[in-house]
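Box 3.1 A note on notation
Throughout this textbook, protein chains are presented in two layers. The first layer is the amino acid sequence; the second is a token string describing backbone geometry. Keep the layers aligned when reading.
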Amino acid sequence: SSHLQKKRRAATARRQHLKSAMLQLAATEIEKEAAAKEVEKQNYLAEHCPPLSLPGSMQELQELCKKLHAKIDSVDEERYDTEVKLQKTNKELEDLSQKLFDLRGKFKRPPLRRVRMSADAMLRALLGSKHKVCMDLRANLKQVKKEDTEKEKDLRDVGDWRKNIEEKSGMEGRKKMFEAGE
């Protein structure tokens, strides 16, 4: 049993090692992602928000303020539009999720039952109208049965075995058998 315990301990240690390795990997991935986002943000800001150089005269300063206000207004409009789009999309998502939930609730998938199906029916279901070959095994079985019943009929025609034995017993019976050529 000590061998089994050692095996178990080894498996647990391995599992722990794998777990810590995975967590370490995930942590480095998160750090990389954060760094990449920061770089992306800096690039965006450098492109869209050039460093501000303040002009010397009052006239130029007022002009710059007007430009900045216009820029702020356009950015605000853009932000508002984006928020509205986001809300719309979220609402659509919620509606679709609700529809999915409702559909799942209404139409419970029935448990599948075994269905007795002839080979013919199976081929018809699989191949549709292309199905031509007849594989009705039951019909073949019926034919065999018919032959069996004919044998049974022959036996019935022979009649009850007791009568036969009575007829064939004694000298009278032997005479009949001899004449019949049995």
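The radius of gyration is 47 Å. Residues 1-51 form one domain.
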